[in-house]
Amino acid sequence: MNRLLVLVRHGQSDWNLKNLFTGWKDPGLTEQGIAEARAAGEKLNHAGYRFDVGFTSDLKRAQDTLEIMLDKLGQKDLPVIKDKALNERDYGELTGLNKDDARKRWGEEQVHIWRRSFDIAPPGGESLKDTAQRVLPYFQKEIMPRVLKGEKVLVSAHGNSLRALIMALENVSGAEIVRRELETGVPIVYHLKADGSVRSKEMLKLHD
Asked: How many Cβ atoms from other residues are within 10 Å of residue 105's Cβ?
């Protein structure tokens, strides 16, 4: 049985470009982000992948990325399930701030701790651990059962919600996953075993 799960971080957003903490705010894609989403769809199409269902967050940048990919796959009518459980990490008081301005306000070391520790949250926001506790129950209940019964699943989400999924799929530690960089618009293709563990993994790089 082909148990296919593909994860894609949304294309570059307007706030990514401006170096702002985005979180649950809802900026759209930049022209580069649109191009990344198109390229991701084209890569998946060229590799021969087709899907049975798509999952995305409650945020426009992830939804638009999925829509563009499905257009390039010739699957615009694919059933799509949207849920805020897959939203980006909530950055609390950091949301909307330029990352350099945040460093000036709280100090480089403190901002680094908030960004790169597993279980320390910024004021009013979520740590990656908090994000995982939101994302993983949804994944285990709604997404993984579909993959295990042979449905081919495409997920368009965010850097930190996808880190939570990758942490579970690849059985890596919190300390390791916070250092994992996820490029915008790059499909991560997993083939899973019957027990949900990873049989194979491939990154479909947009630029060889």
From this structure: 12
Catalytic residues: 10, 88
Query: How confident is the model over 101-113, as pLDDT tens digits?
Result: 999 999 999 999 9
Q: In one letter, which amino acid is 187?
A: P
pTM: 0.95
pLDDT of residue 63: 98
Note whether 21 and 31 are within 8 A (CB).
no
Sign of CA dihedral 31, 33, 37, 39: positive
CATH class of 4-203: alpha beta
Tell me: the pLDDT tens digits for 12-56? 999 999 999 999 999 999 999 999 999 999 999 999 999 999 999
**Domains of the chain: which residue ranges?**
4-203
- Are the beta carbons of 74 and 45 closer than 8 angstroms? yes
